[in-house]
Amino acid sequence: MIKTDNTGFPIPYDSKFALEIHSIYDCLPKHLRVLLGGIGGCSPYLFNLLIDNKDWVIEKFSTDCTDVISEIKNDLDKTSDLQKTLRLSKSKIALWTAICDLGMIWDLEKVTATLTEFADLALKRAMEFEFNNNAKMRNLIGLEKKYDDSGWFVLAMGKMGAFELNYSSDIDLIFLFDESLYPDEKYTDVRMAFIRMSRSVNKLISETTGLGYVFRTDFRLRPNPSVTPICLSVDSALAYYESSGRSWERAAFIKARTCAGDLIAGQKFLKKLQPFIWRKHLDFATIKDAHDIRQQIKVSNLKSGSKKLFGQNIKLTEGGIRDIEFYAQTKQIIAGGRNQTLRSSQTCKALYNLEQNGWLKTKELNILINSYKFYRKIEHRLQMINDLQTHTIPKSEINFNRLSFFMGIKDSSDLHKKLNDNLLSVSKITGMFFSPEIERFEISEDFFNLSEEWLRLPALRSDKAKELFRNLRPIIIKKAFESGSPNITLQRFTRFLENLPSGVQLFSLFASNKELIDLLLEICASGEVLSNYLAKNSIVFDSVLDGNFFNEIEFEKIFNNFREEIFENNTDYEDQLNYTRRLYSELHFRIGVQFLRGIINSKEASIHYSKLADHILEIVWYFCYSNFETLHGKMPGKGAIVLGMGSLGARNMNAQSDLDLILIYDAQHSLRSDGKKPLDVQVYYSRLTKKFLTALNAKMSNGSLYQVDMRLRPSGNTGPIATSFASYQEYQLNKAWIWERLAFVRSRVICGSNELHCEFNMLQGNILSLDADREKLFKEILFMLAKINANKISEKFPWELKRGPGNMLTMELLGQGCALIFDIRSQDTCDHLNRLKDFGKWSASDQEKIKKLYQVLLSLKQVFAFIGDFRDVENKDAIISQRLILRETGLSSISELNNYLIELRNWVDKTIMLGLKQ
Questions:
Q1: Which label site among 29, 504, 676, 736 has the fewest CB atoms less than 10 Å from its CB?
Q2: 502-523 pLDDT, tens per residue?
Q3: Per-residue three-class SS string for 573-608
Q4: Contact criterion met (CB below 8 Å) for 475 and 439
């Protein structure tokens, strides 16, 4: 059970006490006598407990079982004098925990968990005792009610809530009762009864008698402790936290749990409190609040290598226990609303989770974990000496030597050095987080004047925002200069600020994560589209700090987790759409940043934007029809499918793509739906389609999703908004224009009924396998191209991609013609163009050059959508945009690209036209 060598055992500070313990326990093996002698020789408190409990300790050593809680539970179950038995049990826990801790049988987690389990047990027995012995209360609430369904419960806060009680700890408690379980007319009487019983429980636990006390209690974490009673109603507590709760109270509730009483009522209360504790956005404004509290409780600043360490509070001093706890809790408050894996109540586990999610470096984690465990060991030794709730390092060298011996360290200078080194290492990590150094940079007069104008913008209206921003201003301007194009970068940054509704949260985030300033200015330098988007959706910056932001985007996993979260929280329809918008914004931004940084190329970005649209449409369609069905009944017949056309169908979407959709339904022989408010089939699917479009288009608090175009449905805007499958089939087989047949090539089912999906695929296969007249196709393509080019003259050849010689639309139409002639089931234009040499009088070499141009234009289309069209191409200040263009096209300069496009586009135009006219 206990190791036989003495390494790490306490070294007796008082040899006389140690020898006395040796003689009392002479029946035990030598290594046990050495351990107990070391304990008794360092701690007067434990010396007395070893003498008073000799027979019990010897009996415990005679078995291999180190469990003590079960034994104490037995004692409490049988006792007729709870007050006495609780105090005797406390002595047993104190002694046996010390032996198992100092004998290195238990690690820190087991030590603190055992102390906490006893606190839970003591409270449970005390509450049961008071409830069962209060006949007046039982008559008041009904004799059928028991203590554990009475609505009366107690929350363990702080270290007790996290199963981290220290050796001689106060316990932080909040007593509450659920008034909804009782009639209104009984409220006052019930309230007073619970207050009286809570006071009695406190007295039973905390009162000092001849046998000592069980636990000192602290109720100051309840709402407004100076004016409220010891026990509050659930409604009054919730009202306080919703209206007046502060950041430190949010942090405190990370560790909260129901430890005794009506556990179900307690769980309901904590569930209702979750929105107060965990915000859906990254809450960096809490750092300032946490730092202010940290400054108030900090005892003194460290002076490396001096004896200032003597007399310092290991809990409150800079770099000590509280610093590590504050550091973990503040990061949890910042990010835990978005990531439930960061909500652990235990400090070490919380730090591990933060590291796993990229919020903490591995090296920092090791320093913080090792220091925390080291501090807790010191804390326990300090408290074991005289059973005092103390965290103060001894002021005298004599008493410091006692602590060192108790730690098993003979040379106290080694302990001094280790303690000092740990405090300084922790302080460096936490200090950089709570109060990072402000970078100094000389600002030129022009840029200073520009930045003064920033301070007048709405986002900087508050004093707190101005204070944060003034500290960031030099860094922003310096980074703009480092981008190589400060003028254009700062102009776009100004527009970003102009569109920003509020700045405190965002600037707090920047203050703690300077790398985000780099990213923002890189985005501003690269173009207006993403920076303007950011100004209106600045909350997406939260996602950058997720540890996997720059990793491969696992769409399936992300959306499966999203569905689970939505269903677990039973969110209503409006919240479902709002949360979907938030997820869409974050992923849309993430794709853009990964493209900007070169993690993905333009082709991969197209696929990512298309996958995002597929998943968003699928989940919005589900939310939409599920909500619709609750009122109007399930979809009649085989249901409906959503058809994607154009760039969505071809999986060639970009940052600014809208959606070309068609909704097709098959009601079979149903005439009406079967819901509470039944509808005729046509009306049903028409209204469902409009609801779906609104769900996609509507601007909500988290923004909007996509603009939708449904003009590709049969009969365009003049036809019904939802099309029956029979009508669609008839139209495509017998009435569709050739241009509609060409567009049909790039259609695919995005979501909806599986059965109807299969039927559509069969229809598509049948249509594509029909013989097509090549000559008619050539004439139609020529006609369409003439019409396209007549409507709009190219603004800027060769940068206008859809107009002018050798444009994208020409090649897409050619590809669609290939797909019709050769029954190609792919929606990808590049796949279609692989048969171009067989489609007309084009050679294999012609085919490759045409296909190469299409791929280059496709890459440029992705870049232009990202940076805001082609305006930056010849702007000498738009260095980042031009680098992006050249990276995606593989050419060395804009002038080279310009000449390349002019030559190739003109050649392709001439070659295609010759082939079509022959």
A1: 676
A2: 777 777 777 777 778 888 888 8
A3: HHHHHHHHHHHHHHHHHHHHHHHHCCCCCHHHHHHH
A4: yes
Question: Which pair of tokens denotes residue 634?
Answer: 């399930």
CA distances from 2 to 26, 52, 69, 71, 843 (A): 17, 22, 19, 20, 86
Domain annotation for the chain: domains and CATH numbers = 1-106 (1.10.4050), 143-277 (3.30.460.10), 287-434 (1.20.120.330), 438-539 (no CATH), 546-768 (3.30.460.10), 774-917 (1.20.120.330)
In the prediction, which pLDDT does 472 show?
81
Q: What is the mean pLDDT of the chain?
A: 87
Per 3-state DSSP, the chain is made up of helix, strand and coil in percentages (nearest 5) of 65, 5, 30
Residue 500 in tokens = 């920003």
Whose structure tokens read 């985000």?
A: 516
- What pTM does this model have? 0.75
Q: Which residues pair with 85 in a beta bridge?
A: none
* Spatial CB neighbours of 48, under 8 Å, sequence gap ≥ 6: none
Residues 781, 813: contact at Cβ < 8 Å? yes
SS (H, E, C) 189-247: HHHHHHHHHHHHHHHHHHCCECCECCCEEECCCCCCCCCCCCEEEHHHHHHHHHHHCCH
- Using DSSP's 3-state secondary structure scheme, residue 864 falls into helix
For residues 24 and 51, the answer to whether their CB atoms sit within 8 Å is yes
Cα–Cα distance between 46 and 215 in angstroms, integer?
Answer: 17
Q: Give the SS3 label for residue 471.
A: helix
DSSP 14: S
Token pair for 293? 């509290």
pLDDT in tens, 104-136: 999 999 999 999 999 999 999 999 999 988 766
Nearest to 484 by CA among 42, 876, 77, 155: 876
